Amino acid sequence: MNANVKKVDYAVRGPIVQRAVQIEKELKEGVKKPFEEVIKANIGDAHAMGQRPITFFRQVMALCTYPELLDDNKFPEDTKNRARRILQSCGGNSIGAYTTSQGIDCVRHDVANYIQRRDGGIPSDPDNIYLTTGASDGIVTILKLLTAGEGRTRTGVMISIPQYPLYSASIAELGAVQVSYYLNEEKCWSLDISELQRALQAAREHCNPRVLCIINPGNPTGQVQSRQCIEDVIRFAAKENLFLMADEVYQDNVYAEGCKFHSFKKVLFEMGPEYSSKVELASFHSTSKCYMGECGFRGGYMEVINMDADVKAQLTKLVSVRLCPPAPGQALMDLVVNSPQPGEPSYQTFMKERTAVLSALAEKAKLTEEILNTVPGISCNPVQGAMYSFPRITLPERAINEAKAKGQAPDMFYCMKLLEETGICLVPGSGFGQREGTYHFRMTILPPTDKLKIMLNKLKEFHQKFTQQYS
Amino acid sequence: MTENGCEYRERVLTMDTMNPNVKRVEYAVRGPIVQRAVQIERELKMGIKKPFTEVIKANIGDCHAMGQKPITFFRQVLALCSYPDLLEDSKFPEDAKSRARRILQACGGGSLGAYSTSQGIEMVRQDVARYIERRDGGITCDPDNIYLSTGASDAIVTMLKLLVSGEGASRTGVMISIPQYPLYSAALAELGAVQISYYLDEDNCWSLDINELRRALQEAKKHCRPRALCIINPGNPTGQVQSRQCIEDVIRFAAEEHLFLMADEVYQDNVYADGCKFHSFKKVLFEMGMEYSQKVELASFHSTSKCYMGECGFRGGYMEVVNLDPEVKVQLTKLVSVRLCPPVPGQALLDVVVSPPQPDEPSYDTFMKERTDTLATLAEKASMTQEILNQVPGIKCNPVQGAMYTFPRIQLPPKAIQEAKEKGQAPDMFYCMKLLEEKGICLVPGSGFGQRDGTYHFRMTILPPKEKLKIVLAKIKEFHQHFVEQYS
Predict the structure, then answer these.
(1) I want to staple B123 with a disulfide (CB 3.0 to 4.6 A). Which of A36, A404, B106, B473 is the partner?
(2) Which of residues 233-292 of B touch A (CB under 8 A)?
């Protein structure tokens, strides 16, 4: 079989999750365990953990799916208008038709308008918008375009350690070279330009670094990069001739005071034409996170800036082979970027629901950081944004040795024991990358507040017990 | 200096620095002729005068876009799943509600918005397995061998990806028909695998000839390592429905020559011609006994985009893998996990496709009527298309036995061929472009699918509503006669 595929790893759905699923089956069969349910805090799946969908979105989706409902007076007028507009731009007025490969025209226009509003009026060209099957699809497509060369000229892709393992998996599958740059754990996981420089210099000895990927707000780390940092990254990319990929799927998930989301596009253009007419940038967004949590719909888009016109034609050709992204996901993205406005019937409910989701997440981010930091041997950076905490865990020497004897990464050993003893499923830090000799786990902050408290306390208990056991 | 006075700097990503395999990819179904068609539509909207008032897009198998109606039951269930408040609404029949509840129970948090497992919602895979068992006369299907996918295309590319390895003379070769649906050639180009073309027999209704398979294989062994054999049945673009004998022969051939079989069966309900019947590769394989059924590695593909559903936009699909090495299967599961999961609305749709209303259920009558009407209409249009085209001197159309297309052969005058070549255009592209500009009909030239050297074809869908189809066919007849005269 394909040798590159064998090198692919994706820890978020890896061995520990497979074991968790097995345990769930055992529980169902009545096998006795020290717990009654498995808590899947391994994946950023908001609805699975009880978050409710936004009513307005689902109303419009139902109307698009079964247009007979347009006669039903149960639906507010603004949902019907949105649905009619979407259906009018679908072939045969049906979301069952293929769309153009770049995505429904009116949706791309609405996305461009959203970006323009978000970025204080900086223009966005709908023709630079590509709708995608989740953000992952767009990310892989761009990486694919960028991968070329052989041996020492093979494309190198800069990505943070720790990172969301879609990047390492795709790099492995494409046979590109991963160029890791370490985020600074001591400084809230911030990005350090001198570290970028170090990684780049080292990489140039064995590959051709051409891309710099950054996830902001960060996954798994939750850091929200400062505006200064974003400018520095842009300057660095310009200087070093790097294509910038900005993964911004958590752009509404910002909790910490003093933190703000700054889109790479906005900052780039505010830096003036010396940069904005030169730096090649692709920014990614999705319907899976933020306050929507509509992971299953696989909605997403990317905006490409300063892409060579011929390459753009190649990009359009490439995405045409898969025909189009799912039309329901495109429709949903339309609603996300074109949500109820003040004065519209659904506005109040929409704002209430949106605010409730985001503030619950902010509370849980805080709660998580607080509780974890009361545990000796666990050190948790502030969860400034996104949906995860990535605390550092101190493991006793004996535990590390036992893990190694088993051929297991020490944090996998820890997480497996946690799973077997408490039913809590997390992902070991080794799945995301970390400095050697350090250990972490990634946990989502998504379970409902009460369950989250219970979970965090069980974790605390477990960690203390584990530390004692292996002293 | 650039326009805004900034220093010129070569971009990072250029034609020279980009992935060379991507440059080799072609996908004619959405290629240059379609781009021109879209441009013309814009010009019409702007009020530019043309010899026609609308562009008829008969280039792509997009049923709903051409007026086919969705199946009511399916859309009711999906609406209920999208907005479960509607479960209180008495407008919806009980069977739609119970399907929706069942689906939602199998979703995380009772929501279509949750990720599903990467292989696809377990309950849906179980329903798919039962569907396959019913279809194949009881032959067992293991839900664990079912992988839901983002349309059939996704699964096809995933399998090809797994199969591609080696370098130079040991590089994976993949056998695919000429003509073929250009997803295959595009995927092979992108993966850097070797395409091994085997010609279907136009003089015998596009049937598959084992001798031709053998010939192509022998040739290919000299420069690559042939490892897979792809077959599309019912065929795209050709519409042929392979006989059971032929399917047995292909299986025997694959067994002998140690080839992984990929059976693209997305048109399995689209069978029109008398005497033709869909035989699934899985069924025939197992009916051939253990000597084959335990050995031949097979992946079969299906989709929600075609048949009577036409739900292309939902990107629903599945594949069934048979006799896949268990360790490779683990790799497959791992590979699909990176993309998390296929779209859940598409998975839900697939579930109702494989568990449609039963005779004792409230929605049954309406469902059967809609399904029958759609398939009967397609059958009529298939027949009509073949008849009308065969009346045109210089156009020869094989029976459209199944699928959704016709792939007639067109005779082009030497002068036209000459002019095309001078323009650097494939002669059938030249023909189709003129047809588009003069009549507003968008077809795909045969060169986009492959054909024997010196022959020319086009692919046209049979999807436009009957009355419009008649008009389209009449215009093609006119155009062809005029074209032939013009270039005599």
Answers:
(1) B106
(2) none
The complex's ipTM works out to 0.97
Q: Please, is A18 exposed, middle or buried when counting C-beta atoms within 10 Å of its C-beta (0-12, 13-18, 19+)?
A: middle
Residue B140 CB burial class (10 angstroms; 0-12, 13-18, ≥19) = exposed
Query: Is residue A193 within 8 Å of A236, Cβ to Cβ?
Result: yes
**Residue to substitute from B9, B13, B23, B39, interface A, most A β-carbons within 10 A:** B13
Q: What is the DSSP string of B41-104?
A: HHHHHTT---SSSS-EE-SS--TGGGTPPPPHHHHHHHHHHH-GGGGG-TTS-HHHHHHHHHHH
Contact B313 A326 (CB under 8 A): yes
Please count the residue pairs, one from chain A and one from chain B, whose beta carbons lie less than 8 angstroms apart.
262
Cβ distance A296 to B78 less than 8 Å, yes or no, reads no
- Residues in B 172-201 with any Cβ partner in A closer than 8 A: 183, 186-187, 190
SS3 A39: strand
Q: Contact A215/A285 with Cβ under 8 angstroms?
A: no
Q: CA–CA separation, B329 vs B335, rounded Å?
A: 10
CA-based nearest distance B392→chain A, Å: 31
The alpha-helical segments, DSSP class H, found in A159-225 are 166-174, 193-204
Amino acid at site B114: A
Q: State whether B338 and A10 contact (CB < 8 Å).
A: yes
Residue of B218, B216, B217, B199 whose CA lies nearest to B208: B199
Burial of A228 (0-12, 13-18, 19+ CB in 10 A): exposed
On chain B, the residues whose CB falls within 8 A of the CB of A157 are none
Question: Of B76, B165, B310, which is closest to A2 when you measure between CB atoms?
Answer: B165
Chain B CB contacts of A346 below 8 Å:
none
| Calpha distance A134→A249 (Å, rounded) | 10
Pair B115, A295: CB distance under 8 Å: yes
- State the smallest CA–CA distance between residue B204 and chain A in angstroms: 30
Instruction: Record the tokens describing residue A469, joined without a space.
Output: 């056991």
pLDDT digit string (tens) for chain B, length 488 residues: 445 555 557 899 999 999 999 999 999 999 999 999 999 999 999 999 999 999 999 999 999 999 999 999 999 999 999 999 999 999 999 999 999 999 999 999 999 999 999 999 999 999 999 999 999 999 999 999 999 999 999 999 999 999 999 999 999 999 999 999 999 999 999 999 999 999 999 999 999 999 999 999 999 999 999 999 999 999 999 999 999 999 999 999 999 999 999 999 999 999 999 999 999 999 999 999 999 999 999 999 999 999 999 999 999 999 999 999 999 999 999 999 999 999 999 999 999 999 999 999 999 999 999 999 999 999 999 999 999 999 999 999 999 999 999 999 999 999 999 999 999 999 999 999 999 999 999 999 999 999 999 999 999 999 999 999 999 999 999 999 999 999 99
Task: Residue A73: name the closest of A64, A65, A63, A82 by CA.
Answer: A63
Secondary structure class of A133 (helix, strand, coil): strand
* Residue B157 CA to its chain's centroid (Å): 13
Closest CB to A5: pick one of B30, B79, B331: B331
Residues of B in Cβ contact (< 8 Å) with A321: 25, 27, 153, 183, 186-187, 190
Q: Cα separations (Å) of A97 from A154, B68, B259? A: 40, 10, 35
Asked if residues A101 and A316 have their Cβ atoms less than 8 Å apart, the reply is yes
Global pTM reads 0.97
- How many residues comprise chain B? 488
Contact B310 A96 (CB under 8 A): yes
CB-CB neighbors (< 8 A) of A45 in chain B? 108, 114-115
